[in-house]
UniProtKB/TrEMBL annotation:
Residue span(s) of domain Nudix hydrolase: 42-170
The UniProt record lists the keyword Hydrolase: yes
Keyword Hydrolase on entry: yes
Cofactor: Mg(2+)
Keywords: Hydrolase
Name of the protein described by the UniProt record: Nudix hydrolase domain-containing protein
Amino acid sequence: METRGPWRRHHRESLCTTARLVAYQDEVTQPDGSAGRYDWVRVPDQVRVAALVEGRLLVVEQYHYLAGTMWQLPGGDLGPEDHDSRAAARRELAEETGYREGRWTARGALHPLPGLTPARVHLWSAEGLTPGEPAPEPGETGLEVRHLPLAEAVRAACDGRIGCASSAALVLAVAAAHVG
């Protein structure tokens, strides 16, 4: 038995395993003392990057299989080859936009779906970048990179044009850091 705060786990069963995720069902005692089951998913942590180039934020427009077209900051999964989240952030920024090098600042991490997965999104900002050629993955073909003034990116985060929650949070954090 494992205790997790007011919860107790008695048994864990793996329901489905794929290359991208593992779905589990835990038999638990809930905080009120009743027996229950808790379904959850293990997926890789992710990264998002707020890249400032000449005072403008790089925002990508991308079609997602499940969510459709949205604006978001460059990012993606931490892969098994990544020794830390900064390595993944650097890789993803270069793949999607071509920008490399620069000065990197950690901006914390978020749990985007804490009731479904323990996965986190690690947030980074980067400045003083060097341009290069992007090398998108097959699922990223057709990605469009926009260079938005920071004030416009803030409006896009607030009005929903930036549809990725962790991207919106990072835009607001970077804007707050540049104000004060």
